Each structure stands twice: as structure tokens, then as C-alpha cells.
């Protein structure tokens, strides 16, 4: 009966002469190194199959320390050299959905096999599989280290494409000025910052892995491929840092524009207040209920007061104009 481990594991074996691609079976495929010059690529989805992992380790005479490493499902990013194998742990960002999720990946690498263990179902490696099946390029001529390079390069390329799709930096002044400081807008800004930082952490993690891979000294493992990959990741990180600076600049500009708008409103209100304060003062004096206010008996007192108010208003406006307050 097929186990859950076998349902979630595939095996590809290839060489210059041909390949096979099938569901993994413990009875036939436990032995990763075929000893015939072919390369084996085993892909497991799920980290919970510790009994099967033990069978794989024992069946291939791998270092027992691998079991301890595979137990740590929140390891992050590590490169550990074993006797004739290389253990790579990568905490990557899954980009299949708009909401980014993290995933732990493990790679056990030797000169003629890669065992790839992924926490969650799904990957972006179909184009590599197609190159193997169709014998495109030089992948069938190379060892497992070249396949690892292809897998990591796919992760970097996917980060670049998804980053450009999700993080569209809007640097036009008109768009910023038209925005209002609503809770929805601020939430959108925080989401964008969080997304950029998620890509930045993931990219830095991959860069650390590649830098360590450049320095490993494991039998049958060539690290010459990873210098170019480090440059690709460096370019992505530079783009992310540039976008972070641009976003911070846009946020500062946005609040500067909002502050300027507020100042203009306050200035307008202040001008109106200054104009109406003396008018209110005059109206307050002659609105008092005292009997002995001589001006109340003047036949033209009302018109004189209106004229005085008009003069005060005109003088205030002239003063504001000279001071260029409006």
C-alpha cells in the first residue's frame, strides 16, 4: 500500500542517455546514488515523515546528523558540510498567492543526487524538469551541484518577477498629492513596507546561502557556479533597498504636502479671525444693555458704526496684502 511519504515524493533520474520521472517508492528508489554516472533528483513535499527520512538516511549511509537537522523545521538559512554531502536549509517566500507565506526547504546534496524536501506543496521548478526531459542546454552533462545552482537561481528569478509584480513603486507627485491620510491609505502603505521587507529578508537569506556555497569544500561539489548567482541576488537586494528609500521619501513627501495643506487652512482661518475680531469687539460694545451709551442716541450712529467696521476690514486686508499672507 502506498504511504503518504510515497504519495508526496517524486524521483527524477537522468543522464546523457535518458531519464525517468515517476512517483517515488521506498522499495525501488531508496538508494539515491545509482553508481552509474546518472543524477537523481528526489522531491518530497512535507516535513513530517521522520520514519521515512530515517530509512532514507540509513539506506544511503548518510550522516546520522541529518536526522537531527531535519527535525528542526524552523532552522532558517544554513549550509552545513558533512563528510561527502552538503546540507542546505533555506527559509523562502512562497509567491503563488498575493499574501506571501514562508516555507522551509532542505537540500541534501552529493555529487550524483539531490534530495529536496519542501514544507508545503508546489514549486516553480517545472522549467528545470522540462529542460531535463527535453535535454535542453547542458544540464544532463552536469552533476548535482549544477542542478542545485538551477534550483536556487529559480528561487531568485521568481523573487524578482513576483517583486516587480506586487511592489509597484508609484513615484509621481500628482498621485501623492491626491491621496488623503485615511486609515485605508495608511494600511496600504504599511502593507507595502511589510511586503518589501519580507522580500528583503528572503533575499538576504539566499545571499547568505550562496556566499557559503562559494566557500564549501565537499568532494565532488563545484562551487564555481554560485558567483554569478550571488551577483543576481545582489542586484535584487539593491533594487529592494532603492525602493525602500523611495517609499520612505514618498511617505515623507506625502506628510509634508498634508502639513502644507493644513498650514494653508490654518492661515485662512487666522486671516478671517483677525478681520472679525475688531468687528466683534465693536458689536460687543454696542450690544451691551447699558442705558448711558451716548452713541445709541445718534441719528446716524448705526451707519457710522457700519462705516467704521468697513474701514477696519479694508485696513486689515491692505495690511495682509502687504505682508503677502494671501
TrEMBL record:
<keyword id="KW-0406">Ion transport</keyword>
<comment type="similarity">
    <text>Belongs to the CorA metal ion transporter (MIT) (TC 1.A.35) family.</text>
</comment>
<keyword id="KW-1003">Cell membrane</keyword>
<dbReference type="GO" id="GO:0015087">
    <property type="term" value="F:cobalt ion transmembrane transporter activity"/>
</dbReference>
<dbReference type="GO" id="GO:0000287">
    <property type="term" value="F:magnesium ion binding"/>
</dbReference>
<protein>
    <submittedName>
        <fullName>Magnesium and cobalt transport protein CorA</fullName>
    </submittedName>
</protein>
<feature type="transmembrane region" description="Helical">
    <location>
        <begin position="300"/>
        <end position="320"/>
    </location>
</feature>
<keyword id="KW-0472">Membrane</keyword>
<keyword id="KW-0460">Magnesium</keyword>
<dbReference type="InterPro" id="IPR045861">
    <property type="entry name" value="CorA_cytoplasmic_dom"/>
</dbReference>
<feature type="transmembrane region" description="Helical">
    <location>
        <begin position="269"/>
        <end position="288"/>
    </location>
</feature>
<dbReference type="GO" id="GO:0005886">
    <property type="term" value="C:plasma membrane"/>
</dbReference>
<keyword id="KW-0813">Transport</keyword>
<dbReference type="InterPro" id="IPR045863">
    <property type="entry name" value="CorA_TM1_TM2"/>
</dbReference>
<keyword id="KW-1133">Transmembrane helix</keyword>
<dbReference type="Pfam" id="PF01544">
    <property type="entry name" value="CorA"/>
</dbReference>
<dbReference type="GO" id="GO:0050897">
    <property type="term" value="F:cobalt ion binding"/>
</dbReference>
<comment type="function">
    <text>Mediates influx of magnesium ions. Alternates between open and closed states. Activated by low cytoplasmic Mg(2+) levels. Inactive when cytoplasmic Mg(2+) levels are high.</text>
</comment>
<keyword id="KW-0812">Transmembrane</keyword>
<dbReference type="GO" id="GO:0015095">
    <property type="term" value="F:magnesium ion transmembrane transporter activity"/>
</dbReference>
<dbReference type="InterPro" id="IPR002523">
    <property type="entry name" value="MgTranspt_CorA/ZnTranspt_ZntB"/>
</dbReference>
Amino acid at each position: 500500500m502506498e504511504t503518504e511519504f510515497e504519495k508526496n515524493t517524486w524521483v527524477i533520474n537522468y543522464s546523457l542517455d535518458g531519464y525517468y520521472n515517476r512517483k517515488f517508492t521506498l522499495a525501488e528508489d531508496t538508494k539515491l546514488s545509482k553508481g552509474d554516472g546518472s543524477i537523481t533528483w528526489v522531491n518530497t513535499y512535507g516535513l513530517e515523515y521522520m520514519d521515512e527520512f530515517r530509512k532514507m538516511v540509513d539506506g544511503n549511509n548518510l550522516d546520522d546528523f541529518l536526522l537531527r537537522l531535519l527535525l528542526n523545521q524552523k532552522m532558517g538559512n544554513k549550509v552545513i558540510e558533512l563528510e561527502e554531502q552538503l546540507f542546505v536549509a533555506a527559509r523562502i517566500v512562497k509567491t503563488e498567492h498575493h499574501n506571501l507565506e514562508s516555507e522551509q526547504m532542505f537540500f541534501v546534496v552529493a555529487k550524483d543526487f539531490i534530495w529536496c524536501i519542501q514544507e508545503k506543496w508546489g514549486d516553480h521548478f517545472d522549467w528545470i524538469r522540462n529542460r531535463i526531459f527535453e535535454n535542453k542546454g547542458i544540464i544532463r552533462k552536469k552533476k548535482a551541484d549544477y542542478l542545485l545552482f538551477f534550483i536556487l537561481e529559480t528561487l531568485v528569478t521568481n523573487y524578482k518577477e513576483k517583486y516587480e509584480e506586487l511592489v509597484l513603486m508609484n513615484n509621481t507627485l500628482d498621485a501623492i498629492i491626491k491621496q488623503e491620510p485615511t486609515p485605508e491609505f495608511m494600511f496600504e502603505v504599511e502593507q507595502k513596507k511589510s511586503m518589501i521587507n519580507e522580500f528583503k529578508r528572503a533575499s538576504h537569506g539566499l545571499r547568505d546561502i550562496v556566499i557559503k556555497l562559494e566557500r564549501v569544500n565537499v568532494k565532488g561539489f563545484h562551487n564555481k557556479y554560485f558567483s554569478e548567482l550571488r551577483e543576481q541576488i545582489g542586484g535584487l537586494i539593491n533594487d529592494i533597498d532603492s525602493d525602500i528609500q523611495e517609499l520612505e521619501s514618498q511617505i515623507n513627501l506625502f506628510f509634508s504636502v498634508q502639513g502644507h495643506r493644513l498650514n494653508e487652512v490654518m492661515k485662512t482661518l487666522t486671516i478671517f479671525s483677525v478681520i472679525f475680531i475688531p468687528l466683534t469687539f465693536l458689536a460687543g460694545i454696542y450690544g451691551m444693555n447699558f442705558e448711558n451709551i451716548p452713541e445709541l442716541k445718534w441719528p446716524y450712529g448705526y451707519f457710522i458704526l457700519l462705516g467704521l467696521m468697513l474701514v477696519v476690514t479694508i485696513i486689515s486686508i491692505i495690511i495682509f496684502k502687504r505682508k503677502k499672507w494671501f
